[in-house]
Amino acid sequence: MYMLTFGMTNKKGKRSGKDLVRDGLGGLASAAMLLPQSMAFGVALMTPFGVPAGRAALAGLICAAALCVFSGLSGGTIGLVSSPTGPTLVLAGGVLGIAAAPGAQAQDVLLIVAVLVILTGVGQIVIGATGGGRLIKFIPHSVVVGFLTGSAILMLKSQYSPLANIELLPELRSWIWVPAVTAGVTIAIAMLAKRFFKWFPPTLAGLVGGTVFFHITAFIAPAGFPKGWTIGSLPGIGTFESAIGFSGLSSLPWPALIVGAVAASVLASLDTLLTSVLADLETGRRHTARKELIGQGVGHIASGFLGGMAGAGTTGATLVAVSGGGRRWVGVAAGLAILLIVVFGGGIGAILPLAVLAGIIIRVSIQMFDPDIVLWIRNKRARADAVVAILVAGVTVGYDLLVAVGIGVAISVIMYLRAQVKAPVIHRSFTAKDFHSVCQRTAAQRACLAKHAQTVKIVELRGDLFFATADRLFEELLPDLETAAWLVLNLRRVRRVDITGAKILQQIAEHIVRNGGHLVFCEVHKGIGIGHDVEKTLRKLSPDAKEIDIETFVNTDEALEYIEEKILESEGLVSDDQPKHMKLADMDIFSQMPENLVRLIRTATRTEHFNAGDVIFKKGDRGAALFLLLEGEVDIRLDTTKHHYKRLAKYTPGTLFGEVAFLNPGERTADAVAVTDCILEELHSGEFHKFAQSNPEAAVAFLVELGKKQSEELRWSAHEIQRLGDW
Questions:
Q1: In whole angstroms, what is the distance from residue 354 CA to residue 179 CA?
Q2: Residue 105: how many CA atoms within 13 Å on its side-chain side?
Q3: Most distant CA atoms of the chain, gap in Å
Q4: 297 vs 377, more confident
Q5: What region, left, alpha or beta, does residue 522 occupy, with left being phi > 0 and alpha being psi -120 to 50 degrees?
């Protein structure tokens, strides 16, 4: 499928040279886009804490290179490209604000960032290895939007100082507007390039255009602009040293770093997996969260040891990479391209203005704002999500980013509990008037069951029966506990029952028993936490609970058959003392026919004996006879697997089956199996036709009664179809 869809492998499953060229070109395109953003984010993070701009820009590039290479090698997401991102920038800045002491040296700041990034990588590896990537996907979208919005505001605030708080020589005071205007020109060119030159990366266009504008302005100015207005040359590879110094580790604020690393690992993993989903949409592949997060974690560890910062999957660069044909190795290609720039292009920083990077940060910040919040406020149904998003954004901006992450997680838990509490615990409920077992009854038995139908209540439960929903279930069932003689609880749709739910079930059992009723469970699967025998489980929870009399059955049909037998037994219509054999004349179909006609029909039948377990007929057999059951029980079954079947009907003495083949001979649609030793009268359609020629009156009378029975079954079938439609 991979080869057919993308044309990216040869017959041996290896990538062709053409495919590798596409990966290389896609990697170069994405690297060109990542270059300005990575440097800008590094500068925005570290320069406020005294780190030289060149060293700060290098930290952003190291992060992009390390994440791209190791994420690409992992193969977790086809086409993914990574770099520093807004959320990780803001979070790391918040940790630095707490952990970096006033007046800290640049080397101390670099050490704090390095430890934070390494711990973030370890956290991502743990999340990936333990399957936590699936849990991250459950964070509500409103929490993510709120955090991104707050991060965008903080990023905008962070650029005020580089653009406004500028000290200049007296002769340059009239040129104080240059940084702000350069940033504006950078943003404008990037926006125009995105609109009119879609083939050219807009961030790169803004970088080039803003830089050209800055240097033209510098040429016109009466004196040269300060060197501090540019990044400065990036440190050479020969002068580079790791930021990790073991002598300073003991003095680090470890509690703040650990909390920040946990938050950063969750945030970076969430950001990466969201980008992975977008990459999947473009490539048609499915990412593997475990492999991707482990690759990102190893990349963060490498970035930390090499003096880089934290990051995540980057949407814009990823889309550029895959749209350029990049697939399997595009991330590695992008990382290697950035490494080449670090090694051979260090001088580029001397001509790059800080204002241009500030413009890039501002543009990214603006793009992070989600206009959906405004729509949510106007929509009553989504207003709660808007409040959540605004709350998380407000805490992010006004108090602390780490606290905002904690509040976001807490809100996600509360929203889940709220959804569970609001979700109905009862899927649907009905009485035995609407649903009976597949056991076929005589007319007298059906009349008796109809009289008691309203006292048999069947309730289908759903979802999780836990501390937040169990009490509501008791309240909703209370009217039935007071009036129902039989209550059937179907647990097929129940996912889990905790200890509180089990105690509520015990209270329900005790309550209905005190009112003279009976509680029956069915479809209790093992995974919900109370086992297959509910009474046994409830007695283990409370050994002193004496008023518990519970029956548990495999399905609703068996439960209803049990209840029907109990009702008929209480009315004297079923008893062990009653004869097991029924005469032909006593069957319902002959009850309205004169006795002489019944005797005539008897001459056309043939008595058959079957032992328990015998197959009367099988599915696919050609049939042309119906069977009148005088003694024993017969099941009509439909095989579902080699060793399992679905029971479609059960017949007891006084009932008949096989009438469809009798009226219209053809293949049998199910198996008929003797459950016990049986005596039947077989009436073959061929024999009946001969009989009808000499006894037309008896034949017509029999067909009329048979037609009445068929019409009753058709009415019930229509009712069953409607019930299944509500399933």
A1: 8
A2: 5
A3: 130
A4: 297
A5: beta
Question: Tell me, what's the pLDDT at 720?
Answer: 63
Q: How far apart are CA 204 and CA 30, in angstroms?
A: 10
* Kind of pairing between the strands at 678-684 and 606-610: antiparallel
Please tell me the least confidently modeled range out of 1-15, 99-113, 323-337, 379-393.
1-15
pLDDT of residue 244: 65
Helix 254-283 vs helix 86-99: crossing angle, to nearest 10: 180
CA dist 507 and 53 (Å) reads: 69
- Looking up tokens 């969430």 gives 270
Rounded to 5 degrees, what angle do the CA atoms 301, 306, 309 make?
65
Average pLDDT of span 508-512: 87
Q: What share of the chain is helix, strand, coil (3-state, %, to 5)?
A: 60, 10, 25
Selection from 44, 70, 45, 86 nearest residue 268 by Cα: 86
Are 50 and 104 contacting, i.e. CB atoms less than 8 angstroms apart? yes
- φ, ψ (nearest 5 deg) of residue 468: -85, -15
What the block records as the tokens of 272 is 């990466």
As given in the structure block, the two tokens for residue 462 are: 């759903």
Domains and their CATH numbers in the chain: 2-166+174-244+261-415 (no CATH), 426-570 (3.30.750.24), 584-725 (2.60.120.10)
pLDDT tens-digit map of 83-140 = 999 889 988 988 998 888 777 788 889 999 999 999 999 999 999 999 887 766 666 7
Q: Residue 576: its pLDDT value, please?
A: 57
Of 484, 486, 504, 455, the C-alpha closest to 550 is 486
Instruction: Give the C-alpha separation, 119 to 128, whole Å.
Output: 14
Which amino acid, residue 630? L
Phi, psi of 426 (to 5 degrees): -95, 115
Radius of gyration, alpha carbons of the chain: 39
Instruction: Please name the residues in contact with 524: beta carbons below 8 A apart, sequence gap of 6 or more.
Output: 491, 530, 531, 532, 534, 552
